[in-house]
Amino acid sequence: MNGYNTFNSILISDLDKQIHLLASTPYSRSDPNYNQTIGAGFNHDDIVFNQIKQTDETLKVQFPDLKVRHLLDRGHDDQALFEFIDDLESSFIVRVKSNRNSNEFILDQKGKPQFVKLVNATLEQTQERVLEKFVWKNKVFQQAKMVITWGKLILKGKTHSVVKLQVFDREKKAIFKDQMLLITNELVNSFEAAFEIYQAYLRRSKIENVFKFLKDQLGWEEFRVRDFMVIRNIITLCFFIAGYFYENQHEMIKDP
Fold this sequence. Notes:
It is globular and about 60 Å long. By secondary structure, the protein is α+β, with helices and mostly antiparallel strands. The longest helix has 28 residues. Strand 8 and strand 9 form a beta hairpin. Helix content is 32%, strand content 32%. It has a 6-stranded mixed sheet with strand order 3-4-10-9-8-7, sandwiched between helices.
């Protein structure tokens, strides 16, 4: 519909081998009530929160024993969102903004307390692992060293787990431009738990790569098909194809 965007959520299930439409929210930025203060209209956060709620509840109705985990990027590093997902009795993993404060503080020159940024804070536990092979941005690093630090962050009386991660090559040079810093409402009390949080967050890139493939290669944003069954079949096919490319990219890029 000209002048309208839609915020859509789908489920690709390996349980019943089907694609389910979970929620669809049409909206227009030209709507006079868009981007207004709460109580007088709606804004982008209202759309996001509503979509998360619809998706979360729909999943739990269709699959009652399913544990729902929301993976969100830095744009959603928002305490209100953390509390919202807590109230849904689901879990989240969110990449943290570089300007988020920790519970640690130092005294400035005037003797006033100043919070230390979370990226610079000292967390409770640190552990290192040597990885025989680490792949990042189409490059393979042999004998890379992964350093994971984890600890707690208390926000308005609620305790969250924080995972900070960096990987170094043989020459001890950092592979990531910035440390990866994640926050979750799940319990993290070991290297294995911290590493699992990191691996879970990386699934975002696989999802994003598939939709990038849809947009860039197949003109998804200019899609004009209206039949959901047809759209569902196209998405299924694209996920197989893009997923295959994603899993085999390191071999495929060697062959022109």
